[in-house]
Structures are given as C-alpha cells and as structure tokens.
Design goal:
This protein has 372 residues and is mainly alpha-helical. It has helices at 21-31, 61-90, 96-118, 127-150, 153-160, 163-174, 181-198, 201-204, 213-236, 242-261, 270-296, 299-306, 308-321, 327-345, and strands spanning 14-15, 18-19. The protein has one domain. The protein contains 14 helices and two strands, in the order E-E-H-H-H-H-H-H-H-H-H-H-H-H-H-H. The protein has a two-stranded antiparallel sheet. The termini are far apart.
Amino acid sequence: MLVASPVMRPLDGSIRGRTDPRMAERATESTGGGRPRPKHVKMAAPDTPPRTGRHPRPPSTETRSMQPGALLMLTSAFAFSVMTVFVKLAGERLPSQEIVFARALLSLVLSGSLLRRAGVSPWGRNRRLLWLRGTLGFAGLSCVYAALTHLPLAEATVLQYLHPSITAILAGCFLGEALTRRLAFATASSLLGVLLVAHPESVFGDSGAPLDPLWVGVAIAGASFSAAAYVVVRRLAREENALVIVFYFPLVTVPLAIPAMVPVFVWPSVPDWWLLLGVGIATQIGQVSLTRGLARLRAGPGTALSYLQVLFAACWGFLVFGERPDRWTWLGGGAILASAIWIAWNPIRAEAPASPPPDTSGSRHPVSSDPE
C-alpha cells in the first residue's frame, strides 16, 4: 500500500486528507466525472483562449509582401500623374522641347552619379542599339510632352497606354515573340478605344467637341516611339547593364533637344523653374516606386495598379484645369486600358526566351506612360 508523499497531489486535489474544492472541480471537469484520463490523451492548457473572430490568423508571407508592393505601385501612378500636371502647367508658357531638355538634363546628372557610384563604365558594348534606344526615347518623350500641352490631361494620358499593344506587336516582329489571337483582339480593342477617344466628326457626326486630329496623331506617335524604345531595351537587357541603358536616354536627348529648343526658347520665370524641378522630382519618385513595387508584386497585378494613373489624370484634369472627360473618353479609355491589362495578365512568351540580368538599378519597366 502506497502512502501519499507531501509532494504528490491526487486528481481530486486532496493533500493529507484535505480537499481543495477548486482542484476537485477542475479534476472532475477534465476527466469526466472523476474518472482517470488515459495517459495518451493530452489535456488542453486551461489558460489557452479559444480561437475566435477576435483573433484572426496572421496574414501570409505573400500577403504581407503584396501590401507594400501595392502601396508602392499606387505611389508610382500618383507620382507620374503629378508629373503630367507639372508638364501641362509648364507648357502654358514654355515650349515642350524646353521641358524635355530640362527633364533630360536632370536625368543625366542622376544617371551619371549612379553609374559612378556603381563603378560601371557608361559607354556599354552595343553602342549602335544604345544610341537607337536614346533616339527613340527622345522622340517618344517629345511627342508625349507635346500632346500633354495641347490635349486634355485624361485624353492625352489614356492615349499613351496604346504602347503595350504596340510593344507586343513589335516584339513579335523583331524579338521572335509569339503573335497570338489574344494579341490581335487586344490590338483591335486598343484601336477601337482610340477611335472613341478622338471621336472624329466625320465618323460620329456632331457629338461634342472632337479632339484635334493633329495632336491625337502626336500622342499615338509618342506611344509608338515609346513601344519601340521598350523593344530595344528588352534586346539590350540581354547584354548591357541596366544603368547604362537608362543613361543613354538623357545622353542622347540633351544634344537632340538643344536645336529644337533654341529657336523657341523662353527664359523660365521663378514659378517655371519650380515646375521644371517638380517634373524631375515626380518622375524620379515614380521610377523608384515603380521598380520597387514590381519587385514585390507579380507583373499582372503590378501593371494593373499602374493604370490608375489614368484615373488620377482625370481627377487632376477636373480639379486643376476644369476638364470634364465626356462619355467617349470613358468608353474609349476603358477599351484601351482593358486591352493593356489583358496583355499584362497574359504575357506573350518568346519562342526563344533569353535570361536577362536582374535589374537592380531602378530602370524603367514598360508599364508606365513615361517613355524613359
């Protein structure tokens, strides 16, 4: 017969003939009427609270990564929309080529400092393609800024988003990427969107004030040059450092903008200098946020978020310039953006894909309307 030692506590809570009512009640509840619990059954800790709606499970790693990524993409879209506002305000007094020159000069200083810090030679290897990339970027930026100064802000912005469809077509022609029915449908949708946004009187009759066909053509040319620049960038990425590719855009743009700027040069006033500085700062914020956001998001969601720039542009056009997009702009813009998002969510794969080096330089990704 065993004698209970002072350190042993029976299940009913008795110690040396004394019974603790609280311990006895706890033992009874845990064993079901005082019956001993089998050893293999684990007792739940009494202080463990049950899981209820007040204690949700922590978000997954992917969700935690997407939240800052989405915020960065929203910041990028907002910054680029602010850039278009500064360009349009500056264009009320300054020629568009003067804005292009100022923007390129600031970009040249920033890109050169990044190359020097990284210890990378700025001249690259495939200089013919690098100069072509810079020339196409200059042509695209010139058309984009000219369209921004002559068209309503929302319309000028939405027309720039033709470039995903044009990029896919050019990539199929020059990079061997597949041309599919999906791409054909997206291209047709984009062209229909352009027709709706412009709503020429010869097609739609007297349906409000149509856009000037000249500047609509300039905006489309800007999207086309930007698309061509993106195709060249994708080709160069196989062999060149991304910092070098970015550097060649302002390197070529600065000398090309001077002869176009000099005949119509206007000395900037103090407010104009602030606007030009704002163009450069907003662009830099947009570029950095875009690159970091795409590093945290899949390409499809990231690109879709970047298209909020069109919505921001419509808001700025109304708040700052008193512009009201009509129904044709909403319908046509919806068609253009739907085709661009479709291409972003369903990327066209190359027949012989290459593996470009990772881009850690803050270079551009072809989802923004900015052609750099």
